[in-house]
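Q: Convert this sequence to structure tokens.
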Amino acid sequence: MGTYLWSAELSASAYILWPYTTKKIKGVPDGEAPTVLWTHGTSGWYPTAAPSTHRSLFYQDFVTYALALAGYAVVAPDYAGLGVGTSWDRTTIPHQYGIYQAGGADALNALNALRAALAAFPERLTTDYVNVGHSQGGAVGWGVSELLAEKKEGFEDLVRGHLGTLLFAPLTDAFSLPATSITTWVGKYLNQVYPEFKLSDWLTPLGIDRVTLFNQVEGSQSVSSFLFTPENEIVQPDWMNTWSVAALKQIVNPGERPWKGPMLVIHGEKDPAVRYNASLATSRATCEKYPRDLEFLGVPGVSHFPGMYATRSI
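A:
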């Protein structure tokens, strides 16, 4: 069960990818696999977009297969609204894309998935674990570290087992996304967080109609790119001046809060999807406010996904 921002308990799916042969680590009994909590990047916004529904688990040998082949067990939440799309009362479960602060649905679901996996397979998974995340999942992973720091009383067992966090290209500034992305991907569910929010505050009538169609067809990222252009026909010109933007900025981004380390952030300097300078700035600001063991590695000439390949030998 996961918890949404407005405190409703909702079901969320996950999977475990098992290694054929476990990695040998000193002090770990034979047969126990070292555990990795994997928080995935943007796969979509609807139940059919869950990584567990993909033959390649969405990330194939970028991360998930590579970890399993190296002997690790990968515990991977789909996030609420992906995989399981309907609640017990038959209401739709939206994917709360972009709520990354501690206590956000995805961070909670990640920890709940890990706890469920450890309870189900106590003799096959180590209680010590590392969180690895990319892009959207990098932001979720950062939220996990904040949740472990701020709500220790609810996750004492997982606090003890947390060895550290590895984040690739974490999305730490949602408002650095194109306006057509945040206004549609976040705007389509925001009235469930702020009931007074109206989608017309952000989108034109055409934009609202396109969101309706997007929901009906459960569109993918490519469908999003097709439907939500050009920006001047989709987005209201003064959307950034609305009260909802100011409110959302208080909860949308990870960083600059208490967090549990150690943490390594790896980001390609040529990333076109998630701004390198944004995650660097968040890392610096977080360390200034809450000094911990955080290292930032910039990778010259590398973009959004290849950063995971380029640094594998580190």
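Residues 218 and 276 are 30 Å apart (CA to CA).
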